[in-house]
């Protein structure tokens, strides 16, 4: 970098993983070193300790670590026996992994629309998607609501529709671990669900609010039998004897090194959640009146995996280019809803279509967001935004 570059011209990280690394410093080094010393790289003591700490953090009976957020979703569907002829309802405005795991199990993802204010699954469209699946001769089995950008979906409304149709609920909290819904952390069982009828999956991808230094994920369940099935499936379907498999499973374990890293990060995670909310509050105050800003209702809290705004049609590309020229990165989550992506165009959509998902894909843009975004840097972002969008 040119040594004469002014502080207010230096590029801003979109997610500053390095700042957290500097904070944790020696603690991470020592944690990894302990693993390198005891050499229990697969399901070592740190994995067991992490699962205990994760369960305590969110109030789940069982926390089961695994190799990725995608495998977390897939393992639950496999444990429930989801397969050919089954339909699983998924929102169209999300990352492809949500529907991908359904297809990998041989089932059919049926895509539903989202709400314009929260970007999360619209219960009314969910209801229509169930009807669509039934009309096609599919058996509706489950729904995968997504807690997008760190904000919980409307869990009560989703649970009401699911209960009415006897559907399983797999909450995709890949972006929202640490958030709460009605004072209960995500990971605790859906309130009112019968044992074994609900589960939560999350991701520890490095960019997530709680991320490791590679891939990783976890599953949260309150049913003992379901937990046993998932633990078996993550290790090739092993039974009492690992050389006598009781089912077809995966190699989906979390590495012990990653568990060691997550144990240290979990210690500071509550502080980081507070910091993320402070950053979000500064954005909301500074950007009022120039864009449609994300809203969090009184019944939920967000961990702000992303701070995503909506712009008037046709303004997004110009804003992104203007900010990029000033060293300010942006991102678009998601430029294409699932039903516009080549791999998912052939899957059914809820009756009435997906107009909100299509509209959001043309209007959303995400700003730098992490727990270490200081006020002066954020002021620079806000000033650049206001300058670009004035008039």
Tell me what you see in this structure.
- It is built from 12 helices and 12 strands.
- A 7-stranded mixed β-sheet has the order 1-9-8-5-4-2-3, with helices on both faces. It has a 3-stranded antiparallel β-sheet with strand order 7-6-10, with no helix packed on it. It has a two-stranded antiparallel sheet with strand order 11-12.
- A hairpin with a 2-residue loop joins strand 6 (180-181) and strand 7.
- It is α/β, with parallel strands linked by helices.
- 39% of the residues lie in helices and 13% in strands.
- The model is unreliable at 1-5 (pLDDT under 50).
- The radius of gyration is 21 Å and the shape is globular.
- Helix 2 runs antiparallel to helix 9 and helix 9 crosses helix 12.
- The two termini are 34 Å apart.
Topology, pairings included?
Elements: H1 17-24, H2 26-38, H3 45-58, E1 62-66, H4 69-79, E2 86-91, H5 97-104, E3 108-112, H6 123-135, E4 139-143, H7 155-165, E5 168-172, E6 180-181, E7 184-185, E8 198-203, E9 217-221, H8 224-233, H9 256-286, E10 300-301, E11 307-310, H10 316-325, H11 355-363, E12 364-367, H12 375-389
Parallel strand pairs: 2-3, 2-4, 4-5, 5-8
Antiparallel strand pairs: 1-9, 6-7, 6-10, 8-9, 11-12
Helix pairs in contact: 2-9, 3-9, 4-5, 4-8, 6-7, 9-12, 10-12
């Amino acid at each position: 970098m040119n040594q004469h570059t002014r502080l207010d011209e230096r590029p801003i990280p979109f997610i500053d993983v390095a700042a957290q690394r500097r904070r944790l410093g020696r603690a991470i080094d020592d944690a990894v070193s302990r693993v390198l010393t005891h050499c229990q790289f697969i399901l070592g003591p740190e994995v067991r300790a992490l699962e205990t700490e994760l369960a305590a953090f969110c109030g789940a009976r069982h926390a089961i670590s695994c190799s990725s957020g995608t495998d977390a979703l897939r393992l639950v569907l496999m444990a429930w026996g989801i397969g050919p002829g089954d339909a699983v309802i998924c929102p169209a405005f999300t990352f492809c992994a949500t529907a991908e795991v359904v297809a990998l199990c041989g089932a059919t993802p049926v895509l539903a629309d989202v709400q314009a204010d929260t970007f999360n699954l619209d219960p009314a469209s969910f209801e229509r998607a169930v009807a669509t699946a039934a009309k096609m001769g599919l058996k509706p089995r489950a729904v995968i609501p997504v807690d997008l950008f760190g904000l919980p979906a409307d869990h009560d409304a989703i649970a009401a529709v699911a209960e009415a149709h006897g559907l399983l609920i797999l909450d995709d909290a890949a972006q929202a671990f640490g958030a709460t819904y009605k004072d209960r952390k995500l990971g605790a069982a859906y309130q009112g669900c019968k044992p074994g009828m609900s589960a939560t999956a999350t991701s520890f991808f490095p960019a997530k609010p709680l991320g490791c230094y590679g891939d990783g994920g976890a599953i949260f369940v309150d049913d003992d039998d379901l937990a046993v099935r998932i633990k078996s499936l993550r290790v090739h379907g092993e039974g009492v004897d690992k050389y006598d498999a009781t089912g077809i499973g995966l190699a989906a374990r979390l590495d012990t090194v990653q568990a060691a890293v997550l144990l240290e990060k979990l210690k500071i995670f509550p502080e980081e959640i507070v910091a993320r909310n402070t950053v979000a509050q500064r954005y909301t105050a500074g950007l009022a009146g120039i864009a449609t800003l994300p809203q969090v209702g009184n019944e939920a809290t967000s961990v702000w995996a992303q701070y995503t705004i909506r712009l008037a049609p046709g303004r997004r590309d110009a804003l992104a280019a203007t900010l990029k020229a000033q060293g300010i990165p942006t991102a678009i989550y998601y430029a294409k809803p699932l039903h516009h992506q080549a791999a998912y165009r052939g899957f059914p959509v809820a009756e009435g279509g997906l107009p909100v998902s299509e509209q959001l894909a043309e209007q959303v843009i995400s700003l730098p967001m992490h727990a270490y975004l200081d006020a002066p840097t954020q002021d620079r972002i806000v000033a650049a935004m206001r300058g670009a969008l004035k008039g």
